[in-house]
Fold this sequence. Notes:
This protein is α+β, with helices and mostly antiparallel strands. It is 60% helix and 15% strand. It has 2 domains: 4-107; 111-183, Glutaredoxin (3-Layer(aba) Sandwich).
Amino acid sequence: MFQTGHWAAALINSLEREGEEIEDSIEFLKILSMWIKTLPGEVSGSHAAEKAESLIREASVKATAIDAARDMSFPHETALRFFILLVRKNNTHHLNSVIQEAKKLLDKKRGIISVSVEYAFAADETVESFLREEIKKRTGAARVNLTGHVNTELIGGYRLRIGDEIIDASVRSQLRKLETSLSA
Length: 184
């Protein structure tokens, strides 16, 4: 059974140990994930891994030759080796989930929380700034990434999603609670 969390943790640990730029390496893996999906048939096994590695290194040399100022070493060696391992083990179809999990682990390590907010009406920067600061205070996060969108079904107020937790401060939810208590 493929364990996404273990693979993501191994990727992050390897990138840190080798001193490679983690965000750049993750972006590189995203590109490889898109590229491998364009190839016909299934790409797996040792032969396919060797061919893929050769093609990727050749493309990197050509790109580096265009920009002579760049270092000639391969910029994402650990990420490439990780990708080749997934090809050998026929697990490239898990790459996107590993990338997402690696981002989550990295955010957690850095104290970054991602929050999704639904508003009844478009919120201005003052409201979003207030929410960010309140969430920082209550969670101890170093930074809060806030993504908001309008959901007119809420009538008024907002709904926060922080990981698996939902905080519903909408008028719609308050009306439902009132209805439940009145009918009881």
